[in-house]
Amino acid sequence: MKISKKFTSIFLAGLLSASVAFSTPAVFATGDPDNPVDFKWDIDINEASISPIPTQIYTGSSIKPDVTIKYKGTILKQNTDYTLTYSNNTKIGKASVTIKGIKNYKGSKTIQFKISPQEVKNLKATPTTTSINLSWSKTPGISNYAVYRATSQNGKYTRVKTLSSSASSYKDTKASKEKVYYYKVRAYKTVNKTKYYGAYSNVICSAKTPSKPVITVKNAGSKTVKVSWKKVSGANGYEVYRKSGSSVKYSIVQTVTSGNTLSYTNKKLVNDPRITPVGKFLRKTSLDEWPQFINVLKGEMSLIGPRPYLPREKEDMGQYYSSIIKCKPGVTGMWQANGRSDVGFDYRCKLDDYYYHNWSVWLDFTILYKTIKSVVYGKGSL
User: Hey, how many other C-beta atoms are within 10 angstroms of the C-beta on 19?
Assistant: First the structure.
């Protein structure tokens, strides 16, 4: 059989191309030689860039975080270019995911990620005279809790107690009465001697409840009553309450801002024995204050302003003295409009201080209206 030169050249060219093809690993394509197709080479998945997996939070179920894989800037598609297989991904500790190339990609790579405990929730503090009691909601899947304490919110926290997973409270009996404490708690689990910690809980502030003051009362039934008490360890102030009858609720009459002040004198008594029946009527109707309008006409007083104070009350006015004396005394004021004798001396000073810093025409009209209402209903009168 005679072979033409054309067939011989085609046959030799075919052998040459075949030998070249077999010398390089490739995916071959067949078809019409006049319409060639592009070859696709197998790519090792290890050559692709794989984004790290951030720490995951324990849920009690399988955790399957997404993985971002890029090859030369192109994001590969799961189940098209690769598959993912997770392991050890249901418990706190180290989990892993195996990335396996498929179709045009080959090889596999395993990367690890952490699963951490949940944050401790609902941390609360209940102070007593002997301890500060902490409580919180239980955190699943852990082995221990760590309790931390500091003497300032942004200060250094020291671990004061390690508790088992069955605990949901802690009693701090070593807290000093002289200090305020800040607490936070976090959960952790030990796996193969490695501790995996959750996030810290919210920070709470607390201090031991001061002991109950022991008080003595002197001069009861006279024009004044002096209340004294023994110093309470750790206290930096006291609140004095008063009520005018067995069926009446206590209301605060004085706030003592120093832990070294150990007495309070009540200078205006309800049912003052010095007041006659006629005097009670005059006070209830506020007729005893009408002569002060003469002082208003003489320019010595204002219609509305802080009620006049006695010279001996200067020390008791404390920090409010400097602002109150800048106002001209008034026939009526914030004290008269907000309860009169039902209001304690300390709160009276606060009201007058508020008036000085927040004066307005509208405030004066409000005071005048409330004063008239108090007079009509006899509110706060002695």
Answer: 9
